[in-house]
Amino acid sequence: MKPSSILRNTLLLSGLIGGAAGAAALPAPFAEQLNANYPAIETLYQDLHRNPELGFDEHKTSARLADLARKLGFEVTTGVGGTGVVAIMKNGPGPVVMLRTEMDALPVQEKTSLPFASKATGKNAAGEPTPVMHACGHDLHMAAWYGTAKLMSENRKAWSGTLMLIGQPSEETVHGAEAMLKDGLFKRFPKPDYALSFHDDATMPSGTIMYHAGPFRASSDVVNITVFGQGGHGAVPHEARDPIVIASRIVLALQTLVARENNPIDPLVITVGSIHGGTVANIIPDQVKLSLSVRTFKPEVRKRVLASIAREARGEAMAAGAPKEPLVDVQPGTDSVYNDPELIGRMVKTVQGAVGPEFVKEMPAKMTSEDFSQYGLQPGVKAVLLHVGAVEGSRLEAAKKAGQPLPGTHSPQWAPDFKPTVVNTIKAETAILLDLLAPKK
């Protein structure tokens, strides 16, 4: 039996997940209020989509979220971790629950043909102009965040405790959460007992709430390797030390780390996404540069494989008689997202009651990364990241039958099916918050 199946059976036996029996639906007034609030939510979404900003440059976006939260009665602080927003509503005794949204967009030129498509530009890390697009759904996340905040503000008699709303910068670089924490997020403000976030997904029908207990999203690190050789004429390679050949050997050796040094049941991905060296066909260059993406779930696997990458690079250079060892530069990214299993069980039951059991599905873990992981690593914080399907069901089914993949997140054509996706996200977020912040009887 698969580990995920064992975990699921354990949760079923404990009554933590399963049918929606005992899981109360949202109170009737909430549905009416959500319907009334929807036009403003959609307008916000379209405006955010039309005006995206890159990581740590979300000045207008963060100001917009801060203004909306203030009008709802939250105590708002801006500039946390750069452009981060913290909005606090203290509403009597009870736990502290955090709801996070990301604010940043991607350096992508939009090709959706939407009437509110982005024509915005920004500057990349090198200071060069680049088109900018919300190609990962953070605009939808922010719209849902606002819609949920409005419902919670309008219904303060239904809950007790402290609601903490976070507008996080620069998730795409996986350094925004870290920046907010370093700026005292959980010291200057109440430390949450629970942390929650949602992310749209291209693999399931619109409005489907998806969950996975335990390790869910992989850690991510970048490794840059500079291979040194001895340049020369391409016609007399024996008079040189060819770094292109050394680099090629390294590329193949790295996959052997996955195939022969790693336990097959411990996921590991090493992708060489960039390799640069040389200028013309008949010149052997002095050096070659490689850039790697390394993704794992377990900290011990992560530590071991990063050391092994350096070892393999040095070994191949030594075998080829390179003039000096390669330079291996590890740029730490973010840790693996871990969804607290007990909290997942509680949330699943709650969400089933809010959106219907047919809209709640278990999903596999993903090798993509999310810096939401940083919140759950803080002592005493139980964290859960859920996904929500964002593709119209019949369109998804037709694509599967045809064997043709649809545009997904990070695609210049990514356009989530907004209304059913955002409505069920708001319902799920609100139901979870009401459950976690339920007044004690």
From TrEMBL:
<dbReference type="InterPro" id="IPR011650">
    <property type="entry name" value="Peptidase_M20_dimer"/>
</dbReference>
<dbReference type="Pfam" id="PF07687">
    <property type="entry name" value="M20_dimer"/>
</dbReference>
<keyword id="KW-0732">Signal</keyword>
<keyword id="KW-0378">Hydrolase</keyword>
<protein>
    <submittedName>
        <fullName>Amidohydrolase</fullName>
    </submittedName>
</protein>
<dbReference type="InterPro" id="IPR036264">
    <property type="entry name" value="Bact_exopeptidase_dim_dom"/>
</dbReference>
<feature type="signal peptide">
    <location>
        <begin position="1"/>
        <end position="23"/>
    </location>
</feature>
<feature type="domain" description="Peptidase M20 dimerisation">
    <location>
        <begin position="223"/>
        <end position="314"/>
    </location>
</feature>
<dbReference type="InterPro" id="IPR017439">
    <property type="entry name" value="Amidohydrolase"/>
</dbReference>
<dbReference type="Pfam" id="PF01546">
    <property type="entry name" value="Peptidase_M20"/>
</dbReference>
<dbReference type="InterPro" id="IPR002933">
    <property type="entry name" value="Peptidase_M20"/>
</dbReference>
